[in-house]
Write a structure and sequence with these properties.
The complex is a heterodimer. Chain A is an alpha/beta fold. Helix content of chain A is 30%, strand content 32%. In chain A, strands 7-1-4-3-2-6-5-8 form an 8-stranded mixed sheet, with no helix packed on it. The N and C termini of chain A lie far apart (96 Å). Chain B is mainly alpha-helical. In chain B, helix 3 (40-77) packs antiparallel against helix 4 and helix 4 crosses helix 7 (181-191). The longest helix of chain B is centred in the middle third of the chain and has 39 residues, at 86-124. The chains are: A alpha/beta, B mainly alpha. Chains A and B meet through helix 1 and helix 2 of A and helix 3, helix 6, helix 7 and helix 8 of B.
Chain lengths: 155, 261
């Protein structure tokens, strides 16, 4: 009897250890926490080129994460990329003339959207569109411009 | 020439027959699921044999695999000044691939072989026949609790393996080689997706657990009931289960991550 109790205890410990490992992996080792951000409101921005921006990339203001990319669609009328950003409801005081630009963290890091608030008295709300956007830097175009500028400068 | 063809045909037929028998065996096994659930004590006992006794080997190998990943990854990434991404490398390779596959291979070697030997020995010493004599079906009493225990233990062992591996990578990368602690954990948690990576890894390990235990139990149940036969069946279990794990891993990876984007 005592023996089987000890065995059950060890098996119980094993189960706890296994589930603790799963918990550790999901909380510390994965982005599960990002899925539960609570209430948010959606803001739209149209970019002429999004580069390598992905859904669920972060949206930052002054380097602080305030939301994530909810969806990326191609608008076939304007030939622009229509990016919907879910911004945490707590941060609801961004002026209507906020600019959105796509940046890269580090040289080869992930791409994210950086917002820079302007001075308009009205704030962004659910469904508002950001007018001023800056597309992602495309390396080929950058190099092309550089070479072109160099060639014309030599004349 | 004709003789060779005859032997090839006979071998193929025999292989197909064994495969079919194993399928019927699996079906008979699965039908006993409700009656095995009615006696959880038997499953708990097998969880000790298969799960608890495998923890040590899983812990040690997980730690070393993580440490090696940390070392190798650091040496490659530091050339590009990207050693901050070490967390992503260690986390993704463990959670997606190495965790499920390595722990399934270890499980096949440690627990699968023991299962085959145990069941094979039961058959060789007529214990299974004795059970049937007493009108006790060995499927719900003997085989199903073992299979169920493996099915439950495998994902937990995999989680332990991956978690310990990530800590091993941390020990080498951060403590020894000086990668920034913050960038290790941030890169890890931002690149490992809960649904795409972690849950898919768990699904893989569940499938591997089911396959390894199926192969092990079938080999034990189907073995030639002699000392030599049990030995051969044990070897076959490790070989077939390992190959099946690798095959299923390719299949599942292709299904999960196959599409572009």
């Amino acid at each position: 009897m005592n023996n089987s109790r000890a065995l059950e205890l060890v098996v119980g410990l094993f189960m706890v250890l296994g589930f603790a490992a799963l918990l550790f992996l999901s909380l510390k080792g994965s982005n599960l926490a990002e899925y539960q951000e609570g209430d948010s409101y959606t803001v739209i921005a149209n970019f002429s080129n999004i580069g390598g921006l992905r859904v669920r990339a972060s949206v930052t203001v002054a380097g602080v994460r305030v939301g994530r990319i909810a969806s990326i669609e191609f608008d076939k009328d304007s030939y622009m990329a229509r990016v919907a950003m879910a911004i945490v409801s707590e941060y609801d005081q961004f002026s209507l003339d906020t600019t959105a630009s796509i940046r890269t963290s580090g040289l080869i890091g992930e791409q994210y959207v950086a917002l820079e608030p302007g001075g308009d008295p009205d704030n962004l709300t659910e469904g508002s569109e950001i007018e001023l956007t800056q597309s992602a830097l495309v390396m080929e175009r950058l190099i092309g411009q550089f070479l072109y500028g160099k060639a014309s400068g030599d004349k | 020439m004709i003789e060779w063809l005859v032997r090839l045909g006979a071998n193929s037929l025999q292989g197909l027959e064994t495969f079919g028998r194993s399928g019927l065996f699996f079906w008979r096994l699965l039908r006993q699921l409700p009656s095995a659930l009615r006696e959880p004590g038997l499953v708990v006992h097998q969880l000790y044999n298969l799960g608890v006794l495998s923890v040590i080997i899983i812990l040690v190998s997980g730690l070393f695999v993580g440490m090696v990943l940390g070392l190798q990854g650091y040496n490659t990434l530091v050339d590009f000044g990207a050693e901050g991404s070490l967390g992503s490398l260690v986390g993704l390779s463990l959670v997606r691939e190495l965790g499920p596959v390595m722990s399934a291979l270890l499980f096949a070697g440690r627990a699968g072989s023991a299962l085959t030997a145990e069941v094979g020995l039961m058959k060789a010493t007529d214990q299974l026949s004795a059970l049937e004599m007493m009108a006790v079906d060995p499927f719900p009493r003997v085989l199903m609790p073992r299979w169920l225990a493996g099915f439950i233990a495998m994902p937990l062992l995999t989680a332990i393996f991956s978690a310990v591996g990530i800590i091993g990578g941390y020990m080498i990368g951060v403590t020894l080689l000086g990668v920034d602690t913050g960038s290790y954990w941030t890169n890890l948690s931002s690149s490992v997706d809960f649904y795409d990576d972690l849950l898919n890894g768990v699904i893989k390990s569940v499938v591997f657990g089911a396959v390894v235990c199926w192969v092990a139990l079938f080999q034990g149940y189907d073995c030639v009931p002699t000392a030599e036969g049990v030995g051969r069946a044990t070897t076959r279990t490790v070989v077939i289960a390992s190959l099946a794990v690798l095959g299923f891993d390719f299949l599942l990876t292709a299904l999960m991550y196959g599409e572009v984007g």
